[in-house]
Amino acid sequence: MEEHEKVVIDPSLEGKTREQLDLKPFICTEIRSSIMGIPVTISEEVIARAIRREAEGSYEECLEGKKNPWNEVVNMTMFNSTKRGKYCDMGMEHKLLQNLLPKVGGVDQP
Q1: DSSP character for 95?
Q2: Domain presence at residue 74
Q3: Overall pTM surpassing 0.70 (yes/no)
Q4: Residue 82 domain boundaries
Q5: DSSP states of 22-62 as a string?
Q6: DSSP for residue 5
Q7: How far is 71 from 80, CA to CA, in rounded Å?
Q8: Phi and psi (nearest 5°) for 32?
Q9: Is there a domain that residue 93 lies in?
Q10: 29-64 pLDDT per residue, tens
Q11: What is the count of structural domains for the chain?
């Protein structure tokens, strides 16, 4: 994405490496932003640490409904209860994460 933006601005840069384009090397998928001029980077590792879970695993489709084996784990993490809670039942760090993360992602992203 960053490479594409640079090439759109200057087509002579097409085919160059990230280093030649003065971009940071790609290590992992991350969200980059700036809050009051301070650069902020959020990666899967940061999210996993915040919710106290491992940053590994895979996404499985069609596990919707009350019989999903992950429902209890997610509810214990987010609401500190085996039953699903409401937004007001979440801790501040989980509210922040919910507002930072996109609602829809790829199959290999949280």
Answers
A1: H
A2: yes
A3: no
A4: 63-100
A5: T-PPP-S-EEEEEETTEEEEEEHHHHHHHTT--S-----SS
A6: H
A7: 12
A8: -115, 135
A9: yes
A10: 788 888 888 888 888 888 888 877 787 776 666 656
A11: 1
The two beta strands, 38-43 and 30-35, are: antiparallel
pLDDT at residue 36, as a whole number = 84
What integer best gives the mean pLDDT of the chain?
A: 76
Please report, for residues 5, 60, 101, 105, the alpha-carbon distance to residue 57 in angstroms, rounded to integers and kept in the order given: 31, 10, 18, 15
Q: Give the three-state DSSP class for 107.
A: coil
Domain membership of residue 87 (yes or no) is yes
Nearest alpha-carbon partner for 30 in 14, 22, 19, 41: 41
Asked whether residue 46 is assigned to any structural domain, the reply reads no
User: Average of pLDDT values for 87-91?
Assistant: 76
Count of all residues that appear for the chain in the document: 110
Local structure of 94: helix, strand or coil: helix
